[in-house]
Amino acid sequence: MSSPPPVAFSADAVTNVFTMAFSGQVGVADLAAVENKVKTAVRDLRPGFSLLTDLSRLESMDPSCVPSIKRTMDLFREHGVKLIVRIIPNPKRDIGFNIMSLFHYPRTVRIMTVTTAAEAARALR
Fold first, then answer.
1. 27 in a domain, yes or no?
2. How many domains does the chain have?
C-alpha cells in the first residue's frame, strides 16, 4: 500500500467543503506542486464554504512553507470561507496555523480545532 501524497486536496461543490490533508514530511516543493491547482479547485465552491484541514498524518512541515500557507489562507478568505475545521490530534502538531489565522482571516470566520475525523464530520454538518 502506498503512502498518501504530502499534500492532498478536494473541493466538493455539493457539500461546499474544501478539504486539505497534509501527510508525512511536507516541503516547499510539495506545496508549490499543488498551489495553482488549489486556486482552480476553490472556484468550484460558493462563498460561505467550509474548509477542512487534516493534520492527523503530518509529521513535519518545513518552515519555508509559511509563505505558501499564507497565500492559501488569503485565497480561501478571498473566496469567502466561513468555517474552518482543523483535525489536529496532538496540539504539538499545530505548526502555526492558529497564529497565522489571526492575520489572514477576519473574526467572522469561525475556526474549530478537533482531534478526530468523526468530530470534524460533526462540526461540518
1. yes
2. 1
The SS3 call for residue 6 is coil
Give the model confidence (pLDDT) of 95-122 as tens digits.
Answer: 788 889 999 999 999 999 999 999 999 9
Tell me whether residue 103 is in a domain.
yes
Is the pTM of the predicted complex or chain greater than 0.85?
A: yes
DSSP secondary structure code for residue 106 in this structure: -
Residue 61 included in any domain? yes
Q: Does residue 1 lie in a domain region?
A: no
Residue 48 Ramachandran class (φ > 0 left, ψ -120 to 50 alpha, else beta): left
